[in-house]
Amino acid sequence: xxxxxxxxxxxxxxxxxxxxxxxxxxxxxxxxxxxxxxxxxxxxxxxxxxxxxxxxxxxxxxxxxxxxxxxxxxxxxxxxxxxxxxxxxxxxxxxxxxxxxx
Length: 102
Known about the structure:
The chain is an alpha+beta fold. The protein is built from three helices and five strands.
């Protein structure tokens, strides 16, 4: 798993715990929301994370080719968490939380 907040160019880092935006994205996807949907209701939720097991930060490299031109793209460096365990919680309006539980 990776929880990026400051990934730029060919270096994709990860935070040590889930980010609010990452959890909101998971909740939105679980609800079947489109990528361009308004997420202001989810963004208004209060958010907390408990770190149960920090896991290990792993570095990997990715290569790619441009789909149209077949040109080589720069090698990117990516970081992931392996064997990390968290509990993420959100709090907010009862109707929204009930909808997320469904």
